Amino acid sequence: MRRIWRFGSIASLALALAAPASAQAPRGPADPEGAVVSELVVQAKEPGPPWWRVSNGTSTVYILALPDGAIPPGVTWDRSVLERRLSGASAAIGSPGLTAGLRDLPAILRLRAQLKSKAAMEAGLAPALAARYAADAGRGGKAADRFSHWQPMAAGAFLLRESHGHWQPVEPQVRGLARRHGLRMTSSARYRAMPLAQAAMASMTPAAQAACLGWALDDVEAGDAAARRAAEGWARGDVAAALTAPRGFDRCLLILAGGAELWDRISQDDAEAIAGALKTPGHAVAVVGLRRLVAEKGVIARLEAMGLRVKGPGEG
Length: 316
Hints:
- Helix content is about 40%, strand content about 15%.
- It contains 13 helices and 9 strands.
- A hairpin with a 3-residue loop joins strand 2 and strand 3.
- The chain starts with a strand and ends in a 5-residue tail after the last strand.
- Residues about 1-30 have low confidence and may be disordered.
């Protein structure tokens, strides 16, 4: 039996990876999602979030752009376009998934053990970073040392997840609506989790641990307001506003071995899954992270490189 975990952004995979290694400073990470195609930063004409669509004359795939991360409580979005496009769709394509089976259990347990810190995690941090962490972890009267037995990267990830505890990711909502329309959303690709984790672990140094913690604290300290404005922008189809969501921790995976290559692989697999769905007459629905769609080497650019015409949300 194999279990599948799906991820819509590179940060979600980073939550699973951490291990101590030699003290080497991480190189500045390339950010494949940092540069976007300006022509794709538009205001949607249809109600709700931004959609793109690609067609070959006999088939169309409608692509719903997912926001960066989950959306805060109180942010609602118009599902009417999604409902209409799910009706009669031949397929629903979701984010790639990570797979692991029973034979991977010993390695998974070893990974978990390596996520732990024998000494108090803060003791190995630079004083300024330790002070930041203590202040952020202690907000609201909480025990500032509750994650001290984890490695810095894991502690930062847990603190960030805790700060977004009641936020809701969009893809599971789409998956539920697809089931109501008789569709089983399939992953655009599946990757074996353990080889990815083991490659990342080989490059996880104390300096990388500290960098990842710092980026997580950047996102925590940005507060809810910036993320809420971005989520509200996404909900009304304002691509420029949606792209302002804090995303410091996204850089964490990029400093690990294979991080940039994984982003490239995900983007290519998404594009190929969408192009493959065009072989079936009619229409299908796909979901792809907004930044991965509109990046200069993102999914839309790859679809156009295949000779496909992609229309955006500003075209009606």
